[in-house]
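Amino Acid Chain and Its Fold in Token Form
===========================================
Purpose: to set a sequence beside its fold so the mapping can be learned.
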Amino acid sequence: MTAPLDLLDLDPSLTEEERQVRDVVRQLVDDRVRPHVADWYEEGRAPARELAREFGKLGLLGMHLTGYGCAGASAVAYGLACQELEAADSGVRSLVSVQGSLAMYAIWRYGSEEQKQRWLPSMATGEAIGCFGLTEPDHGSDPASMATRARRDGDDWVLSGGKMWITNAPIADVAVIWARTDAGVRGFAVPMDTPGVTAREIRRKMSLRASVTGEIVLDDVRLPANAQLPEAVGLKAPLSCLTEARYGIVWGAVGAARDCLETALAYSTTRTQFGRPLAGFQLTQAKLADMAVELVKGQLLALHLGRLADAGRLRPEQVSVGKLNNVREALAIARQCRTILGANGVSGEYPVMRHANNLESVLTYEGTSEIHQLVVGQRLTGLSAFA
């Protein structure tokens, strides 16, 4: 029997391998994450290193990359994994996305063979944790204005500056740091135990509390010449990494929305008011129907983008369409599901408010909705409105 939320029978359109990946990840989060994530969220902590090693055993870290211990999975399979991870919690999916689609991808795509051999195998197993240092305290949506600098001193590089809102930073072994040089923006693989590198955990977050977020300070950090990612030339390099991460968000947001809707559907069919289940009222059914339609549209969009990626035809503005739509609709679904649960919707006993709070961060990171609107607008008009 088709699951109630699979209104368009999308499951048969997946390959057997894709379904197996989805089901294995779903079982993992059911066993390892769901029983504990509400406590992690409330306490503002998560066993990130332990989770990374468990994800590494299943080949989830950098799973869409090839070689160096990476699984070489399809884009759709990776997307389905992100969907199941974020159905548990956005912070858990962020751990995997930052590790694989930002830090590992940057080294895999732009690093030297020496850098790849040094970092990627241990990152694929989760023994080494990576982070991605692009966002700065005063430069979020405008990375072209970054203040972090790298200057030559003999054969060495010396980095100075700061990065903010960096997932995994306080526990990372390596940071991919982007800095301005006399020759433009360049990337560097920076071991976090290098003298002059400090990371401070950001506390009092109201969102992504089951994720470790930090600030990185670079105080005249001296690096050898081979720390530079040799193929990373210009701002297009870090932006291409963001495109990789945004693709995972397209799927992940759908997972968070699905979990909210499954929760609201189960609640409304068992919660009785005025002598009958909430789901028996027209207004409740209208809410459920509208949300289910938006959910399946988001799933269709994610699947289409995944097939384009696997065919080598996915363009950055298409990923912006997916990120803009799916995160926006997922947040609307979470808020609407909260209304169905009434006062229970704000309780940590249910995942809905946690998802809604997390999605507020997802709405912002890897490009705000406004940035993606401008990306799509530029594609439509041929005119840049960024400046």
About this structure: The chain is about 50% helix and 15% strand.
